[in-house]
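Why predict the complex rather than its parts? Because the way molecules touch one another can change local conformation, and only a joint prediction can capture that. The input here totals 1135 residues.
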Amino acid sequence: MSNFSYRSDYVYDANDPFGHMQEEFPRESEFDVVIIGGGPNGLIAGAYLARAGLRVVICERRFEVGGGLATEENLYPCYSSNPHVLYHMMVDYMPVIRDFDLDGPALTWIKPNAQTGIVFEDGSSLLLTRQVQDTKDSILKHSLKDATTFGKVIRDWKRIVGEIVAPATYIPPMAPIDITMAMERTAVGRAMLEIGEQSPLEIINDTFEHEKVRTLMLYAACMWGLDPRETGLGFMVPLMLDRTMNKCYCYGGSHKFAGALARQVVKHGGLILEAAPVKKILMEGGRAAGVEIGHEGRSIRAKAVMSTLDPHTTFLDLVGPAHLPASLKEEVEGWAWDKWSFNTLHIATHEPPKYATDDPWINESFATVVGIESVDQLLAHWDAVVAGRIDLGAFGGHSTCESLFDPTLSDRPGKYVSMFQIHAPYDLEGGWPERRAAIEAAMLAKWRKVAPNLTADTILATSMEDPEEIEIRFPQMRRGSIKHGDYRPLQMGCFRPNLDCSGTDTPIEGLYACGASTYPGGLILGGPGYLGANKVADELGVERWWKPTPEMERYIKTYLEE
Amino acid sequence: MGKDERFDVVIIGGGPNGMTTAAYLAKCGLRVCVLEERTECGGACETVEPIPGVRIYPHAMLMYASAAPGFEQLELHKYGFRMEWDPKDLLEADVGGLACSDGWRSITPKDQMGWAKLGGMLGQPSFTRELMRSAFWCPPHPPEVEVTDENTPYMQVYRKYQPDIWTPELREMTMFDLLDEHCETEHFKTAMAFAAWASGAAGHWEGVAVPATLCVQLLTLPNMGRTSIPRGGLHGYFHAILRAAVHRGATIRTSSPVDEILIEDGRAVGVRLRETAASGGRTIRAEKAVIAACDVHQAFLDLVGPQHLDPGVIQKIRDISLKNQTLYVSTFHTKTPLRFNDRFKNVPDSKYVGPDRHPMAGIFPCDSREIYYENVADVDGRKGQPTVPPERAMWFQTPPQGFDPTDCQGHYPRGYISPAFEMAVTSPDYHVEGEDALDRHKEDMDRFMRESFSQMLDGLDDDNILHHWSASGRDVEFRNTGLIGGTWCGSRHDEDQLWTNRPIPELARYRTPIEGLYHAHQTSGHPGGLCLMAIPYNLMHILIEDGIADPGSWWYASPYYIPQEGKRSAMRG
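Output of the joint prediction:
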């Protein structure tokens, strides 16, 4: 049984003492589908399509699949970290988890109650929890009015998320006018339209009155890249806030999710090639016909080529400008990368960070915001970052102690792994290699200010990963763009990556785009890969063995059916 | 938590041996579950990227397995196995010279011809593959069969193809004895003996001349040259095995450490996971067999436990010698590339390779077997820290992997990344100052290493080094629990622990005193380490004898295999 067709000319020949002793993967082979990139979207698309009976191959450039679903020994030897530890925000909704039964003995999700905290220099704190009443209790320490408002507003926002935004993540995008008409059908839909017109800053300021509450809410709403002052994406504020209170930790590390997906691909007959950077998308008669793997002279032919890479790489680098319609070329050239990236300090310690604060739950919190005292300071920090600067006096970020949930990250028993991550520009004034040491020292000092036990005696090792290094580790996060491109109104919804490609098919026949730069976007949503699989299954004429989730069915029934 | 899960076979450990066993058994149609303690399978076949763009191979980095029947039987090419190896590279590879205290010394035609002859390359036709398979890919003979010159597999091969190598003393020799007979220069013999020590069976051990020679030949003959590493490193090779297992239906569970092998009425019936396992401390039942593909100490002393074994066996298991090379591995990030120093400057251009033109340093110093013995005494003599001066400490540098575009060497934008430099040090378990001594001495050790490597190379001074990653045997014990004693090759492959004695005669055919329990790990089974897919292939013979595995027509047994009396034969057709 072979999941691809090829011609083998291998023979073992004892008369040729220099002959090969073992057969290798062939120089030329033919599949139904070739997927470029073995990140979450590539693996998801591959798993669905392989199980649908198609002959699938995934080409991954790194030595390991997973893309951002990585668990890497940043603090070598003995201590591993997860770059995407806080990104598992859609586990409750992702169709792939239900369709492949990925919540059980093979893959365990932990959803702590204490989700996102903030500590202030005066020792006060605030905590967003999975259980609404616990969050209200925490807000109550600062403002009775905000606590009451939160209780009311979160109910509406959860409805917007649960009924509309979350299920719509896995349904092809609609034009703005169609969305408006669909949303007019219900009160929840109308509320969503209304909030959509406001900027995150307006929404937070209009809803809450206390400075500390506003600070944390704005941080949580925008930490993944919403522009606090931009209007048009306000509907994402409820999503971000609800999800920041419902993140999951993937036990054993995020890479376990990638491993589980990869096993589904292979179990159903798919093939994965690591260390196989695609150099070129083969074009024949104007359509995509396969790929060429860099430096090996190997080519793979396929009926469908699915790229999970950013539009720049897919169209300009791999297809080549000569093959692009003029309008597509223009759209691709106008693609805007993330406006900010991350700078992350990983540490291994003898004990977890202990925050000097009024609420012991902060020490158990999944994420803790550190160094941000007010909305103004937060905006100033973000403005500086967009302008290419990090103000060592005014920056802040979020921290997490991964070992609290997962002892397996440390091979040395009883030691802890944590990280402190700040928004940071790719193009830093003064240059990253030059300023690294000073920034690391400032981050450590800032962290120690609120977690005094992080002294030289406690810290075993540190390792900092700057935005340039994000691009070095994950070359497809160009310019440190963890989402493959900015979240701005003209790059979201049916405009992601552009009107021609947001449905995952592209103006080039046989070529599909289904990575983080395609609707619905980045983070570990699993949306683009799922939507790409739907499209390719339909176009290659194979039956979908899967059905929409109950949430998606309700959404379709309420908002889309005639 | 629901009912216990049930499989035909539960395999403890997802390293190369556990996973290859899973691939074989899944191909036989058995329901197999692999339980791996770490978050990622692969064991010693791993790649890490401690800082972005810097990929290092903490353990297995060279391909010794080319002759394995597993490539064909498991069809690894269909699961993406690729190896960039152009025979032209081999023919054109510059043999160069060997590094000694006084500079390069050349390898003579007699050295080369003797070496090639021992490896079967001069036979007509070449019998290299058959020779290697006989030494590694054949289960030990059953206990009732006396091992003789006539029935020892490699002896049969030499007698058939190259009778002038065969002598009645061959099975008693050391590798040095054998090299003295067939090769010429002292530095060549010293280098090969050291390479054998690093590969698992040392050049001075009695009675292992041929296995010691062949384990170096595994590396140099079937895939010599610079491009002898699988695409994606040894982890890439492992991926093909993993996928062969998964595609055939094996269930893989990572973050699943086992706490206990469940034994009922003297029979292994399953395992209980540790509480920190991803699925909690649940029980997993094995209806046909439990296979311990973890180290011999863990398997018998921790997971089986003394209540099920007699004290004599326990003592023997405790006494299994782990004195094998514990390698202290260093990788450097430097501002400017490393270069040969003045003493070694006079080399052909081909000694600089890859986009960074990295020096191929090889083994140093290869002067004489006396220097080799000084190092052996330090490492295996239960001393502790090195007592040889840095200029006499023997080390080797792995081939630069810059040919691989997915690798960092030659492609790192923020400076230069060296290949791994390796030196043997005392295993933590035998260190006279205690097993945690290597932790306390790490800074001294790092400095000693740099001084030793600087005997040959410029650029390892404090000003030029941006980062020195080092992993001691102690780190290795924590990171890779299967590499007990920090050893790479498993327990010592000496005469008393090899072939029908490996690891002790009671366990030599992969069976154990517990019915239904088998072992498949480099510390416990013939032939031992090097990620050869050999233990699983050999174990298959035994599982067929015991009626557990029933492979299809793809299976072929070793032609030198002798079935156990009263069992069915694994030889088909």
